[in-house]
Design goal:
CATH architecture of the largest domain: Sandwich
Order of helices and strands: EEEEEEEEEEEE
Distance between the termini: 26 Å
Largest sheet: 5 strands, antiparallel
Low-confidence stretches: none
Number of domains: 2
Structural class: mainly beta
Radius of gyration: 17 Å
CATH class of the largest domain: Mainly Beta
Oligomer: single chain
């Protein structure tokens, strides 16, 4: 097992739900483990549906849920303006062809670098974004390697390095 993702939608439809968590790495152990994720993107009152996706090492996913959650917080009621964590918040669409948008957040200013690895562990893409301010950011990835050549269909692993912190996501390119 590779880890877990949390999906969210305001409708009870998994098909249109989006990933809202970074990869939550699984710990393969015989001991009971507890995992947690704080969804800090919900700012509007309403009912939300969440699913747990188990991301297997063979590239397959298993889904559990939905769990119905109600947010009764009023808008602009002491909502933080700066993200609480440095993470890749979502990649949409995923699977993608030919491009996808990578949304990420920084809790404090940092030098940011994105690296993409193929299933064999070879680095195929490397982009230094430079020093960025705290907040929410986006990168449009065009499905090309560092040299500008189109990547082949497959599973890729994206790593964002921001200062001393790191976040990762699995991307699937389909053609």
């Amino acid at each position: 097992m590779g880890g877990f993702y949390i999906y969210r939608n305001q409708q009870q439809l998994l098909e249109s739900a989006r990933i809202v968590s970074p990869l939550i790495p699984a710990t393969n152990t015989a001991n009971a483990r507890s995992y947690q994720f704080l969804d800090s993107e919900i700012t509007e009152p309403g009912v939300y549906y969440n699913w747990l996706s188990v991301s297997n090492l063979d590239g397959s996913d298993e889904f559990y849920g939905p769990v119905q959650l109600a947010n009764n917080t009023m808008p602009n009621q002491n909502n933080p303006t700066t993200p609480l964590q440095t993470t890749i918040s979502k990649v949409y669409p995923n699977p993608f062809n030919p491009s996808t948008t990578i949304s990420y957040s920084l809790k404090s200013p940092a030098d940011v670098r994105f690296e993409l690895y193929n299933a064999r562990g070879q680095k195929v893409f490397d982009r230094l974004m430079g020093s960025l301010a705290a907040g929410n950011h986006k990168l449009v990835f065009e499905g090309k390697d560092t040299g500008g050549q189109p990547l082949s269909s497959g599973i890729y692993y994206l790593i964002m390095k921001a200062g001393l912190e790191q976040s990762s996501r699995k991307l699937v390119l389909t053609k």
